[in-house]
Amino acid sequence: MPVTFVEAQKLIAGAHAKAGQLDIRVTVAVVDEGGMLIALGRMDGAGALTPQIAEAKAVGAAMLQRDGAGLADLAKERPGFFSVADRLVRVPIVPGLGSVLIRRDGKVLGAVGVSGGRPEQDVECAEVGVSSI
């Protein structure tokens, strides 16, 4: 069963709550396994580019079925492949911490991307969000 809009909203709320505890303002994007946006939530005060970055993090993770750290490794290890793959999706792929795969019963259902904090804070918010669904 795919990630529902209600689940995506719950995930966003969980990630936003964690961001509040960290005293940061973030945007959270949830995409399906095909990289299509399900929901996006931008906290008051989050930076102007955070929506685009959060979505790009989530799309990359979903399309290549790797979390942000895995995407960063791929970009380093296979820059030629990464530069081509980056042009094949509807938004640029942003490698690095801040995206987490959404799995159910061992199957990738999509991904979440977070932008607005330091990289380790973004991934922490993403993990808390995913754990809330």
Under CATH, the topology is which?
Beta-Lactamase
CATH superfamily: Haem-degrading domain
The CATH class name reads Alpha Beta
Tell me which CATH architecture applies here.
2-Layer Sandwich
| Number of strand segments | 4
Order of helices and strands: HEEHHHEEH
Measured by DSSP, the beta-strand proportion falls in 15-25%
Number of domains: 1
Q: How would you state the average pLDDT, rounded? A: 95
Kindly state the percentage of residues in helix: 40-55%
Shape designation? globular
| Overall radius of gyration | 13 Å
SS-derived structural category: alpha+beta
List the strand order in the largest sheet. 2-1-4-3
| Low-pLDDT ranges | none
Please summarize the sheet with the most strands.
4 strands, antiparallel
Alpha plus pi helix count: 5
What order do the helices and strands come in, and which of them pair?
Layout: H1 5-22, E1 27-32, E2 37-42, H2 50-64, H3 68-77, H4 79-88, E3 99-104, E4 107-115, H5 119-131
Antiparallel strand pairs: 1-2, 1-4, 3-4
